[in-house]
């Protein structure tokens, strides 16, 4: 008798009672023999591809983080070789550019540069003006404001302010119990820049005429603050300036005058800020290198029994990663152009270690900052500066649609192909299982029938033999 059951593939399985064979085991073994090699290949490739996909994602993240740190540091202010400091920042501040030289300057401000502020005579709060034109003059430049019949003082103010972006003159109205006055202020400082206003057209506009060289009177317009030059002494030398920003007095140094009084400005090596920013770069680079190493290193471990085992990072054999690391290392030996005698990082005591990370010799760095103070800024942040080159060295890999994105697309395509292969293998396995069960079930049924026939024949023969004996 044959016992029938359903196989995992949906076909009719047999326990092999007719033949005495373990059909399930036979079918399973035959199917495995036909499919196990392909299944192992798909499983291994899927695992390695998924691991590699994750590794490429981690690599891109590490590169992007490094790029962000480099971009943040790649400013002229971050690597200014010299720094100007003031002994009294309420009196004056200063900044130093790459062309400055170290030195100390005594500054005594006697008078700040002033901008013109003028006012018209009193005007009635309800006064209206006839048609005409106002001409605002300052430092040889004229600005014209058209007045329409019936315009109020506030309308004229608004029309003046519409020109402020080009004229630098703004208007306001000041009102008290005696009436209103039109007040004009300028952003331009220096002697000879007083504001004057002339009127033409209707006689009512004459109330708005202002002589910027005459002091204000309630019945006549004039200046409230007269434009004037700054007067100061720099290292004992008497000087004047139309602006409170002095960018030509000392080469490479800009002084900002804030109040009258004395102060001392010192221009010296920007040691603290430079050291801090260089360390920020080193830290960012080392973090990136350590992340890459965790993905590429081959590690050998000695077990308790004395045997050794080796494990490799998911990108240990990846040619793209090796090329990236070589590009980064090349930037440390490529000579910098445009930064004078400072050409490589090692001149500042920054060197590469065996594991690829950077180390900083603080004493050599301090000495290097003093020696190359005038070249630091151009070396790091110049048009072809070190930071720009380091950024570019990883940009082709980390940018959108860059090398790593292309590699990611390729791995995803491989994973999709493996999923299709797995589906095809599953279908093949199911069909092969059905075919084998059909064949062995038929064989088992035939054996059962033959066994039944044999049993019937033997029963008949035994009966005949018994009758013959009787």
From TrEMBL:
GO terms for biological process: bacterial-type flagellum-dependent cell motility; cell adhesion. The keyword Coiled coil applies. The keyword Secreted applies. It comes from the Bacteria. Residues 227-452 form the Flagellar hook-associated protein 2 C-terminal domain. InterPro entries: Flagellin_hook_IN_motif, FliD, FliD_C, FliD_N. Its main location: secreted. Keywords: Bacterial flagellum, Cell projection, Cilium, Coiled coil, Flagellum, Secreted. Residues 19-115 form the Flagellar hook-associated protein 2 N-terminal domain. One of its GO terms (cellular component) is extracellular region. It is found in: Secreted; Bacterial flagellum. Required for morphogenesis and for the elongation of the flagellar filament by facilitating polymerization of the flagellin monomers at the tip of growing filament. Forms a capping structure, which prevents flagellin subunits (transported through the central channel of the flagellum) from leaking out without polymerization at the distal end. Belongs to the FliD family. Homopentamer. This is Flagellar hook-associated protein 2. It comes from Pseudomonas delhiensis.
């Amino acid at each position: 008798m044959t016992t029938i059951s359903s196989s995992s593939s949906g076909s009719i399985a047999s326990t092999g009672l007719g033949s005495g064979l373990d059909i399930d085991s036979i079918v399973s073994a035959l199917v495995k023999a036909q499919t196990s090699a392909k299944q192992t290949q798909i499983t291994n490739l899927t695992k390695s591809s998924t691991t590699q996909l994750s590794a490429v994602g981690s690599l891109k993240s590490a590169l992007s983080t490094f790029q962000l740190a480099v971009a943040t540091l790649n400013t002229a202010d971050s690597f200014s070789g010299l720094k100007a400091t003031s002994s009294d920042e309420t009196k004056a501040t200063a900044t130093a550019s790459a062309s400055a030289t170290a030195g100390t300057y005594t500054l005594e401000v006697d008078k700040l540069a002033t901008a013109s502020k003028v006012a018209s005579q009193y005007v009635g709060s309800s006064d209206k003006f006839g048609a005409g034109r106002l001409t605002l003059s300052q430092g040889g430049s004229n600005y014209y404001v058209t007045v329409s019949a019936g315009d109020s003082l506030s309308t004229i103010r608004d029309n003046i302010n519409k020109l402020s972006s080009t004229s630098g003159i703004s208007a306001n109205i000041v009102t008290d119990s005696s009436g209103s006055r039109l007040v004009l202020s300028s952003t331009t400082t220096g002697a000879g820049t007083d504001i004057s206003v002339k009127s033409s057209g209707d006689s009512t506009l004459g109330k708005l005429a202002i002589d910027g060289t005459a002091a204000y009177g309630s019945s006549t317009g004039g200046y409230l603050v007269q434009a004037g030059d700054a007067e100061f002494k720099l290292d004992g030398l008497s000087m004047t300036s139309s602006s409170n920003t002095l960018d030509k007095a000392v080469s490479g140094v800009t002084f900002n005058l804030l109040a009258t009084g004395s102060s001392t400005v010192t221009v010296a090596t920007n040691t603290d800020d430079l050291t801090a920013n260089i360390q920020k770069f080193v830290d960012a680079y080392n973090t990136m290198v350590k992340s890459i190493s965790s993905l590429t290193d081959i590690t050998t471990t000695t077990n308790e029994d004395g045997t050794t085992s080796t494990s490799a990072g998911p990108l240990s054999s990846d040619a793209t990663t090796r090329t990236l690391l070589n590009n980064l290392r090349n930037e440390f030996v490529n000579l910098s152009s445009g930064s004078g005698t400072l050409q490589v990082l090692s001149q500042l005591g920054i060197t590469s270690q065996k594991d690829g990370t950077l180390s900083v010799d603080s004493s050599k760095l301090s000495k290097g900052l003093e020696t190359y103070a005038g070249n630091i800024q151009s070396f790091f942040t110049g048009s072809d500066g070190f930071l720009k080159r380091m950024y570019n060295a990883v940009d082709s890999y980390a940018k959108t649609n860059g090398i790593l994105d292309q590699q990611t697309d390729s791995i995803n395509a491989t994973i999709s192909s493996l999923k299709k292969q797995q589906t095809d293998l599953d279908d093949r396995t199911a069909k092969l299982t059905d075919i084998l069960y059909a064949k062995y079930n038929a064989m088992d049924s035939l054996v059962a029938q033959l066994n039944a026939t044999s049993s019937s024949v033997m029963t008949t023969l035994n009966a005949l033999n018994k009758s013959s004996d009787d």
